[in-house]
Each structure stands twice: as C-alpha cells, then as structure tokens.
User: Which sequence fits this backbone?
C-alpha cells in the first residue's frame, strides 16, 4: 500500500479496539489554543513548582517540567547534579504529535511509519532535551534512571517516543526514551502537595477489585489469580470504591473508552468524569494503583468551557482522589493487544514484588521495540510498537504493586 492508513477501514489494519467508532458524533475537532492571557506566566509556574526541587530528589531520579509559553512551550529539567536550564525558542512550538489523533481514523491519522519518522525528526530539533537526558543516562545508567515528566501543556506530546541519539563517545545506545529508562508522568492537581520525583514511593498492596465492561470478559485471564469475581455492574463497582472498606492494592477497569475535548465527552464503559466527584474512600485510604485498560483513558483535556487551564480526565480524577498511581492509554488500542498487555504487566509484577511499575512498562516497550523491524514494508508491523508506547504511567517512578494470589496469606 502506498497511501496512509487513514484511507483504509479501521478493521482492515487495526482490528477491534477499546474505543468508540471513529464516526461517533461526540468526536470533537482539535481544541484551539488557549489565549496567552489565560495562561499563568511560565516563570511563575516553573518557579512555583520547581523551587529547589533537588532537596528530596533521589540521585537516580530527575524531573522534566513542561509548561505553555504562548503558542508553544518551555522545559526545565531538575536533578541533584545535572540541570537543564529553562529552554524554549521558536523550535518549541505546539507540535501535532498526539498518538490519540495520529492513530485514529480521522483526518489527522497517519501511516505508523510516518509517525515514527516524525518523532525522530522532532527529537532531533529538540536536542537540548535529549542531550540532558543522555547526560543523566551516562551519570546514573539506564537501568536505574527514572524520569518524572510534569507536562501541563495539554499538547499530548508522546515523551516516551523521544528518540535519544548515540552519544559522541559511543557509550550510550540510541533508542526511544520510554524503552531505555523508567518514565513516569504527573500533572498539576489543584491543592495536591505530592511530588512524585521526591516523595517516598508507595507499595500498592491488598485486594484486587475489577470492573469488566461488555465484551471485555477476556481480561479476567490476567486477574483470575488475584480476584474471584469481577464487577460487571458499574453502579456496584462505584459503590465499592465509595465504601469505607480500604485494603485495595489494584483497581482494574477494562472497557470501551471515548474521547472528546471537553470533560463531558470523556467516557469509560459508561463512567463519566462527573461520576467521580464524590470521594472514593476505598482508593484514598488504600493508595491503590488504578489500571484503566481502555482506549483514551489517560488522555487529559483542557476544558475551555471551564476556562481555568487545568488539565482534567480520568487519570487526574483518580490521582486527585488519592490513587498512588495510574496506568492508562492515550489512543485506541486493539482489544486483543490490550488483554495481552495486561497479562504481561501483571505477570511480571506478580513475579517480582520489588519491581517498580514504571520498570515493567519500560521493559514491555523495550521487548516489543526489539521485535519490530526498522523499515517495515507493511505498516501493520508497527501497530504493536505504537500500542506499547500508548500506555502511560502516572505516579512515583519507584512505586511497586504487591499482588497477592487468592488462597495465599
């Protein structure tokens, strides 16, 4: 095929997915830029958030802050010893690289080979970031380095797909950042004082509570070792999260997701963001990991109807309600691959209780990347590669999930 994948029916190359149909009337055009006057000045936001960030930061952890600057963005990197000064110029404009739009069936969709090419090109011209991360890699080592990315732009930059070049000395291998080092995301949460780059990591231990939407019963294969019966009734599932019964290590959701540029258009298996306004004591008291295995579940939106430049979504909502960490996706994921991914991640974490969640995701991406041809003739050969990089982790990069199999005390 010589044309892009957008011209082909979705099922001819993607297969079934966890998202709604591409022609869903709820789909919205890309959000307009927020006027510069509506954005907190970058100097204020960066200074407020990153004031002396190295005081509590472990030596193997760094943080990259990303903030709007008019029609573009600025970055600033923090580490105990290696800093990235506030950086931004005309090359730091608003990119159109969000995987959710580029892999969907709308006008923005691209051949996966083009997506990978664009990420290599974008990375090449934002070399200040790559050079800083490579310096950290040389100082800490790939195995130990963890990077927390606090991106409040709403630009949906796929940071895990930042291409890191080989260093001049040839000591660092090139590759996609999310397959080389541990990467964690965070977003500014109103009146939340947590700092995932400096706080003590959590141990998410306890019961597994799961909700499986229609057509997602296959995901129980990943959970049957840890829970006897999943919820298939959404009100009953929510009632469990709103109860005072804590002790939840993992809250798992597998369902179909829908995306739009206002919070009212976001949906997970019938769940709306507004349904999460009430406190969720079971999550708050447990500091659980929430795993949303659903299309678009980790996407955050700047709802212009609210006009406060705060990013919202399901990931932000669960974090605000006290979840220690969240896993979700930023695009449409094939149903069979989503189930396979959940099994892989949970099996690896159950096999090594001391392994950070972000490390399991790093290794998943690395394994799939190693199995992907560099120059595939068929764009479908890149599909699993893109799916792997659509899974994002929010939280402390050193947080662990300690699963307990049924029948084991």
Assistant:
């Amino acid at each position: 095929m010589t044309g892009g994948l957008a011209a082909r029916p979705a099922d001819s190359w993607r297969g079934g997915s966890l998202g709604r149909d591409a022609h869903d009337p709820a789909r919205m055009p890309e959000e307009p830029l927020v006027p510069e006057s509506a954005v907190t000045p970058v100097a204020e936001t960066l200074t407020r958030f990153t004031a002396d960030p190295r005081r509590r930061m472990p030596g193997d952890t760094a943080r990259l802050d990303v903030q709007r600057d008019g029609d573009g963005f600025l970055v600033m990197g923090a580490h105990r010893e290696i800093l990235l000064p506030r950086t931004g110029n005309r090359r730091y404009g608003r990119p159109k690289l969000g995987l959710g739009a580029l892999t969907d069936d709308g006008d923005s969709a691209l051949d996966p080979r083009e997506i990978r090419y664009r990420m290599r090109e974008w990375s090449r011209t934002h070399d200040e970031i790559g050079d800083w991360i490579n310096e950290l890699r040389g100082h800490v080592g790939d195995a130990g380095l963890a990077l927390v990315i606090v991106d409040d732009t709403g630009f949906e930059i796929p940071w895990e797909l930042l291409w890191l070049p080989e260093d001049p000395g040839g000591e660092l291998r090139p590759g996609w950042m999310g397959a080389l080092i541990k990467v964690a995301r965070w977003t500014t949460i109103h009146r939340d004082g947590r700092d995932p780059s400096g706080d003590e990591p959590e141990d998410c231990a306890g019961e597994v509570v799961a909700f499986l939407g229609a057509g997602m019963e296959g995901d129980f294969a990943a959970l049957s070792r840890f829970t006897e019966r999943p919820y298939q009734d959404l009100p009953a599932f929510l009632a469990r999260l709103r109860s005072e019964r804590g002790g939840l290590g993992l809250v798992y959701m597998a369902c179909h997701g829908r995306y739009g540029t206002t919070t009212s258009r976001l949906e997970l298996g019938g769940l709306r963001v507004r349904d999460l306004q009430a406190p969720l004591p079971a999550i708050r008291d447990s500091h659980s990991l929430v795993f949303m295995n659903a299309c678009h579940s980790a996407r955050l939106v700047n709802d212009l109807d609210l006009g406060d430049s705060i990013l919202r979504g399901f990931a932000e909502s669960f974090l605000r309600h006290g979840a220690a960490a969240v896993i979700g996706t930023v695009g449409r994921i094939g149903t069979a691959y989503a189930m396979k991914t959940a099994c892989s991640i949970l099996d690896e974490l159950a096999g090594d209780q001391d392994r950070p969640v972000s490390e399991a995701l790093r290794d998943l991406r690395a394994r799939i990347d190693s199995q992907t041809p560099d120059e595939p003739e068929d764009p479908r050969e890149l599909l699993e590669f893109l799916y792997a990089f659509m899974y994002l982790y929010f939280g402390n990069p050193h947080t662990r999930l300690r699963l307990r199999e049924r029948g084991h005390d």
